[in-house]
């Protein structure tokens, strides 16, 4: 209780440029932010909480929020809240509402503590059960489009409960998050999947959809694994429709991927894999 009291005294609450009117996020998002901050109050001494229309952003003291996030006359925190709001709207349109709680600690070391035991090495952001943690150095290197893509990807994980869905196929979890993340980006398949495109043009096609080991930090083909997963979900959306892709994900959570493929798409994993390989050749070769 004393730690929470110190936290409350140390935190500066900042109003968004949009104001704290009817468009402010629900109280539970703010409550979630405060609860998570209470787990490591020493990290959030002097922190700011800013409420966007649908997002709550917490920035650590002297947080290395990229200067390019700032608009003239607007604090960096408000600009980050705008980006989070945009990402949250994309997720809500595809999947449904999600509380967008974004933690932006001051240092990568603090991000590692917040993300423990997973860690954030090599990442721009990481989704936990009910919030997203930014890694300052990784997130700071992203373009404005990249930041929105990453936040939409991670908020999709929050919305779908990816952190507690250990038995879901990794290609569907990561591919669906990337599918939502890249919506509206106007980026081509060859631009997003540059590493995989180079392999396909050389005549090498993946034999199977990427498994969980392919997404381990340091995996030799980690970029290609994400690209393969994204294009698998993009194929499903192109061939069957976005609603079918969402239905596939929801059914896989309930019944497993084999049953979900039959129920929602009328196919099996072997047929999907063959069709996906042909899609890769068409889109990337």
UniProtKB/TrEMBL annotation:
Pfam families associated with the record: Peptidase_MA_2
Keyword Signal: yes
Top-level taxon: Bacteria
Record keywords: Signal
InterPro entries: Peptidase_MA-like_dom
Keyword Signal: yes
Signal peptide feature range: 1-21
Name of the protein in question: Peptidase MA family metallohydrolase
Organism encoding this protein: Microtetraspora fusca
């Amino acid at each position: 209780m004393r730690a929470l009291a110190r936290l409350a005294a140390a935190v500066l609450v900042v109003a968004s440029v949009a104001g704290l009117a009817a468009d402010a996020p629900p109280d539970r998002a703010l409550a979630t932010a405060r609860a998570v901050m209470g787990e490591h109050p020493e990290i959030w001494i002097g922190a700011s909480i800013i409420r966007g229309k649908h997002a709550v952003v917490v920035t650590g003291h002297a947080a290395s929020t990229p200067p390019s996030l700032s608009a003239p006359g607007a604090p960096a925190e408000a600009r980050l809240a705008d980006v989070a709001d945009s990402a949250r709207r994309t997720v809500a349109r595809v999947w449904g509402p999600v509380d967008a709680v974004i933690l932006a600690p001051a240092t990568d070391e603090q991000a590692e503590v917040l993300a423990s035991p997973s860690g954030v090495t090599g990442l721009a952001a990481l989704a936990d059960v009910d919030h997203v943690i930014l890694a300052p150095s990784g997130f700071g290197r992203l373009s404005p489009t990249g930041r929105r893509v990453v936040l939409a990807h991670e908020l999709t994980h929050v919305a779908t409960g990816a952190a507690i869905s250990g038995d879901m196929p990794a290609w569907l979890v990561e591919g669906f998050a990337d599918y939502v993340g890249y919506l509206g980006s106007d980026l081509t398949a060859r631009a997003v999947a540059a590493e995989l495109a180079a392999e396909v043009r050389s005549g090498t096609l993946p034999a199977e959809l990427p498994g969980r080991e392919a997404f381990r930090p340091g995996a030799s083909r980690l970029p290609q694994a994400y690209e393969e997963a994204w294009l698998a979900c993009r194929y499903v959306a192109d061939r069957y429709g976005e609603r079918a892709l969402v239905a596939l994900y929801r059914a896989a959570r309930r019944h497993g991927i084999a049953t979900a493929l039959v129920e929602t798409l009328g196919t099996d994993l072997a047929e999907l894999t063959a069709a996906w390989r042909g899609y890769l050749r068409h889109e990337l070769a």
